Structures are given as structure tokens and as C-alpha cells.
Amino acid sequence: MSEAPKDIEDLVALMARLPGLGPRSARRAVLKLIKKRALLLIPLADAMQAVAATARECLTCGNIGTTDECDICTSSKRANGELCIVEDVADLWAMERAGIFKGRYHVLGGTLSALDDVGPDELRIPQLTRRVQEEGVTEVILALNATIDGQTTAHYIADQLDPMGLTVTSLAQGVPIGGELDYLDDGTISAALRARKAL
Amino acid sequence: MSEAPKDIEDLVALMARLPGLGPRSARRAVLKLIKKRALLLIPLADAMQAVAATARECLTCGNIGTTDECDICTSSKRANGELCIVEDVADLWAMERAGIFKGRYHVLGGTLSALDDVGPDELRIPQLTRRVQEEGVTEVILALNATIDGQTTAHYIADQLDPMGLTVTSLAQGVPIGGELDYLDDGTISAALRARKAL
Ligand SMILES: [Zn+2]
Ligand SMILES: [Zn+2]
Fold first, then answer.
1. Averaged pLDDT for residues B39-67
2. Which among A168, B18, B92, B165 would be 20 to 30 A from B47, CA to CA?
3. Does the pLDDT of residue A199 top 80, yes or no?
4. What part of A 95-124 touches B (C-beta under 8 Å)?
5. pLDDT tens digit string along B78-109?
6. Where are the C4-type-classified zinc fingers (chains A, B) (predicted)?
7. How many beta carbons lie within 10 A of that of residue B169, not counting itself?
């Protein structure tokens, strides 16, 4: 990238670290930003600074919000006894877009993975059993990706919750094998939630 | 996107306008930015502000630099009589990465397009004939994309330059180095066959 001024090289290098952008698309993106300085580049820099200043993880569920407890955790309407377990915030957003789930969430922050050396303590699993007891949860819905690691994690959590005498279900029908929630349309997610089965 | 705080929704919407990122990959990118606040989000916001403050188009050639005249236009070493015409700055960067062209550039800012109503005056074409005369250009190299609009533009420029008595060439079309025929489109193979040379 020695063909561009250093400021621009630096920006291309940072942009290329975003998921979905390689070096070539990062260069294209930066050129578009420079062309649309007032309409895109400056608003984007401002929006990033705003998010850097305000965004934080909900201390209870791991959702991204602007306060220590997210809107869903503080809303008494969402305390219906249902707790939906997702791998990450993108999956929580996908569930919310589907608009059919009215309970609360618990964001694990990943899946168990022997290969990547991720155990229960690296995820938000110890907090889960505490929440289930303290919040009067009656049903835990496992909305993990239909990948091997996702399903291993689902079974591990189901085993942990087994002695606590609550209903544990998982999204089943409608989620294709190997499919990730965030790729699915809203209707598929709704159908899978309605058809959830006891484990 | 009503599932996320407004600051984050705004950032996702702006990111989704970048080439190569759709709504889904914009959401993934923003979540990664939030996770890597100190290492990625803040440096990226700072880099964007630096570029917004310094980047500008070279008044002569259309390259992106930090001064009214870019490094290539101000370098006397690059005044070798060769002028390379490219569609946009990304193509100029690609030529510079190849490292073999030692002359100067002229960035058109697009191609002629009847469909999109782009005529010569929308591009940096009027300035081209002026430059050719003032800078003692002896050879114009047309490095436009091998698309219909690119080739239409190349022929238009060649016609404009015809009365000026200089050499007008274009990049050879053919099989890329290391390219396997089986992977190439028919147009490339046809062009390579038409341009075949005696060994
Ligand atoms: Zn929360
Ligand atoms: Zn220049």
C-alpha cells in the first residue's frame, strides 16, 4: 500500500480487519469514504466515536446496550419466566427481529470448543444457573446454532439445568443442519420457536 | 434494527453503505468493533477523522493525496513523457503495486456510459488534452477495464488524441500470468486468441 499517503494506508489496514472485508474491498471502501466525505466519512467517524463512548455489555445477560443493565433485562414485561440462550449478540438481534419471543436472553459469548480451548468458565455459563434461580425462570430455550459446537454446548447446558426442575427446550424445526441463526429469515426463526421441543 | 440502541443502529446503517458490506455483515462488523473497542473501534474512528482532515484529490491527475498536487505529479522523475489513463484511484494503486510503470497518471473518475448518462464532461477528459500538450506527453497508455464501457471510453479518448500526433497504446489483453484456461471467461480466451503472437 506504499502507493497511498500514510493516513489512508492506516485506514485501509484497519478496515481490512473487519469481517467481510479483505484488502481489496477495504481499499474500495476507503475510496468511497473519501469521495463521500461529508455524507459518509465524517458521519461514520462520528457514529464510531458515539458508540465507543456509550456501548457496553449488559452485566446480566451480555446484550449490548448503553447502560449497565440492558432494556430487555430492566423491562418487567419481559420477565415471563422464559429465558432464551444465544451464542452472541447478533443472534439476539436476529431473535428480536423475528419479534415472536417475549422473554429474556442470556448471551453465552461463544460455544464450548475443545479445539479452541473454550470451557464453561470462558462463556457466560456460571452466571446462567444463578440467573435461573434468582429470576424464577420456568423455561430455558436453547437457541444455539445447529453446528457441532453449538449442539455440544446445548447438551452441556441442558445437563447443568437438569437437576433444577424446569423445562428445557431448543429451537428445532426449521433450523437447517449447519445453519446459523443470523442467516435465517424471520419466518424460519418464528416457525422454529413455535415448534420448539423438550430435550 | 430496533433491537439495538440508536447509536449502534446508526453505525450499522452507515457501515451497510460501504461496498462489500450488506446489513448482515455490517452488524457483524459493528459487534466486532464494540468487542475490540480500544484496539479497533477507537483507532478506526481516529483514522477516519485523520483522512477526512487531510485527503484530497490531486488537481492535476485526480489521484488521492494530502496536497493540491500529488507526489507523482510533483516528482520530476515521473515526467518521462508517458501518461497512463485509469478509470479510478483503485486502478492507479493497482498499477503502482505492480511497480513497473514509471510515468504519470490521469484518473478519469469513471467511464463514459450512455445508460448512466455519463459524458466526457462528467469525467476528467477535457483536462486530458490540455495536460498532453502542456506536459510534453509522448505516449498515452490506456489502462481501462476490459468492459464494454471501459473499451468505449478508450476508443473515444484515442479518437480525441488522434490529431495530436502521439503514440496511444493500451494494456494487452490475454491470459493472466499463472492463469488456467479452464478458469477464464470466454471473452478473455477469445481476446487472447485474437491477440496471439508468433513465438
Ligand atoms: Zn440484559
Ligand atoms: Zn497527481
1. 96
2. B92
3. no
4. 96-97
5. 999 999 999 999 889 888 887 888 999 999 99
6. 58-73
7. 13
Tens digit of pLDDT for each residue in A19-56? 989 888 999 999 999 999 999 999 999 999 999 999 99
Distance between CA B172 and CA B31 in Å, rounded? Answer: 45
Edge-first strand listing for the sheet containing B139-142: B104-107, B82-86, B139-142, B167-170
Residue B127 neighbours by CB under 8 Å, 6+ apart: B60, B106
For residue B144, what is its C-alpha cell?
481501462
What CATH number does the domain located at A79-170 have? 3.40.1360.10
Give the distance (Å) from ligand 2 centre to CA of residue B123.
15
C-alpha cell at A173: 424445526
CATH for A6-54?
1.10.8
Every domain of chain A and the residues it spans: 6-54, 79-170
What's the mean pLDDT in A7-19? 95
What are residue B85's DSSP bridge partners?
B106, B142
**pTM listed for this prediction:** 0.81
Nearest to A45 among B2, B19, B45 (CB): B45
Question: Cα B104 to the chain's mean position, in Å?
Answer: 14
Over residues A107-120, the pLDDT tens digits come to: 999 999 988 899 98
Place of cell 502507493: A3
Q: Which helix (H) or strand (E) holds A28?
A: helix A23-35
Helix (H) or strand (E) holding B104: strand B104-107
| Residue A172 confidence (pLDDT) above 80 | no
CB A106 within 8 A of CB A141: no
DSSP H helical ranges for A40-163: 42-54, 71-74, 89-98, 126-134, 148-161
How many C-beta neighbours within 10 Å does residue B95 have? 17
- In one letter, which amino acid is B33? L
> Are A41 and B64 an interchain contact pair (Cβ–Cβ within 8 Å)?
no
A40–B17 C-beta distance less than 8 A: yes
